[in-house]
Structures are given as C-alpha cells and as structure tokens.
C-alpha cells in the first residue's frame, strides 16, 4: 500500500518535473537501496527480526551501505543496552537492602562495565576497517570476535551469578544484551567466514 502510494506520487512528480533530473532522483529514493543489504544479511542470521528492527531504528543510512556498517549498528545497540543496564544497576544499588542481591548488583556492575569497554574496542576496530575501505583482515576479525565473545562472557557471568528466587532484577537486561550481541557476532562471522559460526581455519 505504502509502495503504491510512493509510486503514484513519483509519477505525479515526474509529470511536474518531466525533462529534469528531479523525477529520477525521487524514483531512486522510493526504492530505498539501503534495505537491499539489511534484509539479506539479517536474513542469514538466526535472529532476523531483531536484526532488522535494530538496524532500521538507526538513522545513520551511511552505515547501512556495508555489512561492516550493519555490525557497527548492532554493536552500538548492545553498547547502549549495557549503558542502560549500568544506570539501572546504579539506581537499584541506592535502595536495595538484601545483601545477596546487593552482591549481585555490584558484581554485575563490574561485568557490564567490562562489557561496555569490550564493545567500545570492537567498535573502534570495526570503524577502522570501515573507513579504510579495505577488507577486514583475519587478525582484525579475530580480535573483534574475541572482544564480542568476552562481552557475552561478562554478561553470562552476571546472569549465572545469582539463581534466586526471586529472579535476578537483571534477567531481562541480560537476555536482551546477549541476543543483540549474538546478532553482531553472527554478522561478523558472515562477513569473514560466510557462515554464522566463527571460522577456525588458518
Ligand atoms: C530469507 O531466507 C529464506 C530462507 O531462509 C528465503 O526463503 C527468503 O526468500 C529470504 N528472504 C529475503 C528477503 O532474503
Ligand atoms: C570512525 O572513523 C572516522 C573516520 O576515520 C572518524 O572520523 C570517527 O571519529 C570514528 N568514530 C569512532 C566512533 O571511532
Ligand atoms: C556462502 O555460503 C553459501 C551457502 O551457505 C553459498 O551458497 C555461497 O556460494 C557462499 N559464498 C561464497 C562467496 O563463498
Ligand atoms: C535496557 C534494555 O534492555 N534496552 C534495550 C536493549 O536492546 C533491545 C533490543 O535488542 C531493546 O528492545 C531494549 O529496550
């Protein structure tokens, strides 16, 4: 329905601007070439919907022109998730009185801080490979893969530290973080290994 409307509008415009370049520009915009990458790459991951939704919510269209750019976006989402979790932990620590939950919160605070810095270093290498317009080399791939896995390990630790009952106040955050971080790892593996699992050869 939306597509039809856009097409009708474009036809209307091309009559108005016939002979000029304006109609051609409008028709190109209507096709939204960015989605050409988002759909097929996210489709290769096991979390297609989360991948597409996270990337589409990001306004930086220049990053959607390469699979490395897509990985930067999902890594940024995970980073801001970690940051949100840290804010939540800070607030909970102020009022929590149960000692075992306090202990969980202090542990997870440390873990999320580490995860945050892990993602930051992943982002700086991803950004480097993006701006050099060169293929990611194997060493860069290995490093990014390691720091993303390390970030997952931190949050895994936070999740398994405390079994409850009651459930950990960070259950939801941990789950969401691990899911979006998993999308970044799958995209990274797809870029370098053409599969969602890490490449271990050579
Ligand atoms: C997504 O993948 C499925 C198979 O897993 C395929 O049937 C479908 O056409 C793909 N869609 C896009 C938009 O690539
Ligand atoms: C990414 O690289 C560009 C160009 O080299 C640079 O201007 C930008 O500050 C970098 N961004 C981050 C987050 O590192
Ligand atoms: C990537 O893997 C798919 C199957 O998973 C295969 O069809 C395709 O040819 C591979 N591409 C390259 C460049 O190896
Ligand atoms: C705090 C939190 O979990 N924020 C977001 C984390 O990322 C997901 C998407 O993966 C969002 O839906 C959450 O709101």
TrEMBL record:
<keyword id="KW-1015">Disulfide bond</keyword>
<dbReference type="Pfam" id="PF04043">
    <property type="entry name" value="PMEI"/>
</dbReference>
<comment type="similarity">
    <text>Belongs to the PMEI family.</text>
</comment>
<feature type="domain" description="Pectinesterase inhibitor">
    <location>
        <begin position="33"/>
        <end position="187"/>
    </location>
</feature>
<protein>
    <submittedName>
        <fullName>Pectinesterase inhibitor domain</fullName>
    </submittedName>
</protein>
<dbReference type="InterPro" id="IPR006501">
    <property type="entry name" value="Pectinesterase_inhib_dom"/>
</dbReference>
<dbReference type="InterPro" id="IPR035513">
    <property type="entry name" value="Invertase/methylesterase_inhib"/>
</dbReference>
<dbReference type="InterPro" id="IPR052421">
    <property type="entry name" value="PCW_Enzyme_Inhibitor"/>
</dbReference>
<feature type="signal peptide">
    <location>
        <begin position="1"/>
        <end position="22"/>
    </location>
</feature>
<keyword id="KW-0732">Signal</keyword>
<dbReference type="GO" id="GO:0004857">
    <property type="term" value="F:enzyme inhibitor activity"/>
</dbReference>
């Amino acid at each position: 329905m939306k597509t039809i409307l856009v097409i009708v509008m474009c036809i209307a415009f091309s009559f108005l601007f016939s002979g000029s370049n304006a109609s051609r520009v409008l028709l190109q915009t209507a096709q939204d070439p960015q989605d050409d990458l988002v759909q097929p790459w996210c489709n290769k991951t096991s979390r297609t919907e989360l991948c597409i939704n996270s990337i589409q919510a990001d306004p930086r269209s220049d990053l959607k022109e390469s699979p490395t750019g897509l990985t930067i976006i999902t890594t940024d989402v995970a980073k801001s998730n970690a940051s949100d979790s840290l804010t939540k932990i800070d607030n909970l620590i102020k009022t929590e009185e149960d000692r075992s939950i306090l202990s969980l919160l202090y542990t997870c605070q440390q873990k999320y801080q580490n995860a945050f810095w892990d993602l930051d270093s992943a982002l700086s290498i991803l950004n480097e490979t993006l701006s050099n317009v060169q293929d990611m080399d194997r060493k860069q791939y290995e490093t990014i893969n390691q720091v993303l896995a390390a970030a997952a390990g931190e949050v895994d630790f936070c999740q398994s530290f405390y079994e409850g009952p009651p459930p950990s106040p960070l259950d939801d955050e941990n789950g969401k973080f691990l899911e979006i971080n998993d999308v970044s790892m799958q995209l990274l593996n797809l870029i370098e290994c053409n599969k969602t699992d890490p490449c271990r050869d050579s």
